[in-house]
Specification:
By secondary structure, the protein is of the alpha/beta class. Helices cover 44% and strands 14% of the residues. It folds into 2 domains: 139 residues, Rossmann fold, CATH 3.40.50; 61 residues, DNA polymerase, domain 1 (Orthogonal Bundle). It contains 9 helices and 8 strands. Strand 6, helix 8 and strand 7 form a beta-alpha-beta unit. Helix 1 crosses helix 4. It is globular and about 55 Å long.
């Protein structure tokens, strides 16, 4: 396989932000009159698809989306880069075109990139605001590949959810799944526990 580009999801891949999204989401649904949910329910039902889809599934409107995004921005100090994220980005950017593809809206994404000083490692950033439909729709990956002037078959997506797997397959990209528990993927795709493990996989793909 000729690998010319590596595309990273943000939340759960580069950024340990699940707790902040859970807090923001839970605060939102309670503010708008619904019961709070457990972290387990959040992970099973709402971690992966884009926020507007999740809010809509609960019968809430755009005001709830805006509230959740503001709340999540307030929690940026609680977010953490995964320990190997910066080193992996630097190593990948030396060899491949590098992009960020996230369902997170642009304002929040750019604030996170600025906060963690990640911009120098990224050749393109495509957010949920840049497409008509977020992952699992493949549009976000196709737009990133177009911006990087690569074919989807020359791009690898590093993701952590079923939405990433489906988007990659529909776009025609190769997918590597990050799963900290090391659980095998039901979709028969390569799984890594630590982000740094993708470096050897990328080498294997290109040899």
């Amino acid at each position: 396989m000729l690998v010319r580009a590596v595309l990273f999801d943000l939340d759960g891949v580069l950024l340990d932000s699940k707790d902040t999204w859970y807090e923001a989401f839970n605060d939102t649904i309670k503010k708008f009159g619904l019961r709070g949910i457990s972290k387990k329910e959040f992970e099973e039902r709402f971690w992966g698809p884009d926020l507007r889809h999740n809010i809509g599934e609960l019968g809430l409107n755009e005001a709830a989306v805006r509230f959740c995004l503001r709340r999540q921005l307030e929690l940026v100090e609680k977010m953490r880069l995964f320990p190997d994220a910066r080193g992996v980005l630097a190593a990948v950017h030396q060899k491949y075109k590098t992009g960020l593809v996230t369902n997170t809206p642009k304002k929040n994404t750019l604030r996170i990139i600025e906060h963690f000083r990640l911009g120098k490692y990224l050749d393109v950033v495509v957010t949920g605001d840049d497409v008509s439909r977020g992952k699992p729709n493949p549009e976000i990956l196709l737009k990133a590949c177009d911006a990087l002037a690569v074919r989807p078959a020359e791009a690898v997506l590093v993701g952590d959810t079923g939405s990433d797997v489906e988007a990659a397959r529909r776009a025609g990209c190769f997918i590597i799944l990050k799963n900290e528990r090391g659980a095998p993927s039901a979709s028969a795709v390569p799984v890594v526990q630590r982000l740094s493990e993708i470096l050897a996989l990328l080498e294997d793909l290109t040899t």
